[in-house]
Amino acid sequence: MSIETVHVDLGDRSYDVRIGTGLLSRAGQEIMALAGKRRVAILTDETVAGLHLAALQDALASVGIDAPALRLPAGEATKCWPELGRAVEWLIEQRIERKDLVIALGGGVIGDLAGFAAAILRRGVRFVQIPTTLLAQVDSSVGGKTGINSPQGKNLIGAFHQPALVLADIGVLGTLASRDFLAGYGEVAKYGLLGDEQFFEWLEDAGPDLSGNPAALQRAVRHSVGMKAGIVQRDETEQGERALLNLGHTFGHALESATGYSQRLLHGEGVAIGCTLAFELSARMGLCSQEAPSRVAAHFAAMGMPSRISQIPGQLPDNDQLVALMGQDKKVQDGKLRFILAHGIGRAFVTDDVDMTMLRTVLSESRN
Ligand SMILES: NC(=O)c1ccc[n+]([C@@H]2O[C@H](COP(=O)([O-])OP(=O)(O)OC[C@H]3O[C@@H](n4cnc5c(N)ncnc54)[C@H](O)[C@@H]3O)[C@@H](O)[C@H]2O)c1
Ligand SMILES: O=C(O)C(=O)C[C@@H](O)[C@H](O)[C@H](O)COP(=O)(O)O
Ligand SMILES: [Zn+2]
What is the ipTM of this complex? Predict the structure, then answer.
């Protein structure tokens, strides 16, 4: 498969998302074309470092760039103040200047943290995303949402800071654990559910074999990035349409907070459960047919993914506490929850007109 490019057109914050196999070993040329021979520092996690850091450093060395790396612990708990502080102070020690480059080599955790570090370092330095998970390739590396979690809620501390370039090497997904691949698939399915029924239909067919089919995988990444780029171009800072990308997240983020940002529930798993709940709520409110949530749940089951709260291991807070956690969602306006609901598959919309009794019923049903 050839390398494809999706251009994200945001005026002076525009950038290319390059998608294909072999991009990691081409990173030197890609970065020289972007910035010339600049100082470069890499933020990554310990797992990704063991698998892919040497290839990136070799590629940079081949064009004469020596790039030191800081390895952070792998996992969601890394999106926190102490690790952010460590990363920023290390970048200062490396004397990274505004026109230099910070590279995020890793999944969404590293991308979000490194992007935020780049946003606040010297009030903003350039950064390049080299996403190594399916989730990061289809979603987190594009669009400029960066940040860390707080105990009160997901991504509550952050900034919009667009990358200068995204290099999505499909080949690196081959080393992903199956659970991490599937978590990323939660965000892939989200695109179909929020705005493209045909894409969802294609996923119903192609999804179960996606990890073993590089051509289909590249198509899924390319299509997802194309949809996200379109939405971000029209609404960079989430004043309206961009909230559609939050389908499933009001539920998912509350469940991630409730499980302590741990391995009990990965972000993409929370999105899959949350998308199913959003369709269940839509059906219960008479906004779509009952066939829609059944189809969503059936697809996640066919993928071997969770779609119900009861599939999360361990104890969870009660419904009131979950609804209270939802109250920290960034979409809340004047203290009122806003949800992404749907008139059908591919037909999502934003609303604050939600029946709270039905919301609790849907939560209770999903627990059983
Ligand atoms: N900024 C955004 O727009 C946006 C969008 C979606 C999700 N997110 C955020 O992304 C995060 C989740 O990202 P994630 O699912 O990539 O998690 P992650 O970064 O924790 O990566 C998942 C696991 O895969 C490992 N890994 C990464 N690449 C690998 C590879 N190629 N081979 C083997 N192992 C590899 C990591 O070490 C980690 O253990 C959440 O914090 C979520 O909030 C942000
Ligand atoms: O890019 C966006 O916009 C998204 O909402 C993408 C989501 O998949 C992602 O998880 C995002 O970080 C959630 O945004 P938040 O504003 O609710 O933190
Ligand atoms: Zn997400």
Answer: 0.99
> Rounded distance, CA 178 to CA 228, Å?
24
User: If phi over 0 gives left and psi between -120 and 50 gives alpha, with beta otherwise, what is residue 196?
Assistant: beta
- How many Å apart are CA 100 and CA 301, to the nearest integer? 45
Strands 40-45 and 348-351: unpaired
Measured by CA distance, the residue closest to atom 16 of ligand 2 is 330
- The tokens describing 240, both together, are 């309206």
What span, in angstroms and rounded, lies between the C-alpha atoms of 350 and 332?
A: 12
DSSP H helices, the chain, are 27-35, 46-48, 54-61, 81-93, 108-120, 134-135, 178-195, 197-206, 214-234, 249-258, 267-284, 291-303, 319-326, 356-367
Active-site positions? 123, 145, 187, 228, 238, 242, 246, 249, 253, 267
- Is the shortest distance between the CB of 282 and ligand 2 below 6 Å? no
Residues facing residue 191 across a β-bridge: none
Residue 312 token pair: 């999360």
The first and second tokens of residue 272, run together, are: 């899959």
Tokens of 171: 């080949």
Q: Which token pair is 257?
A: 């907070």
Domains of the chain: 4-175 (3.40.50.1970), 202-367 (1.20.1090.10)
Q: What is the dihedral of CA 326, 331, 334, 339, to 10 degrees?
A: -70
pTM of the predicted structure, to 2 decimals:
0.98
Number of C-alpha atoms within 13 angstroms, CB side, residue 183? 22
Residue 165's DSSP bridge partners are 16, 128
Name the 3-class secondary structure at 269.
helix
Q: Which ligand minimizes its atom distance to the CA of 72?
A: 1
Query: And the tokens for 247?
Result: 């389908």
Distance 353 CA to ligand 3 centre (A): 23
**Dihedrals φ, ψ of 264, to 5°?**
-60, -35
Per-residue model confidence as pLDDT tens digits over 135-188: 999 999 999 999 999 989 999 999 999 999 999 999 999 999 999 999 999 999
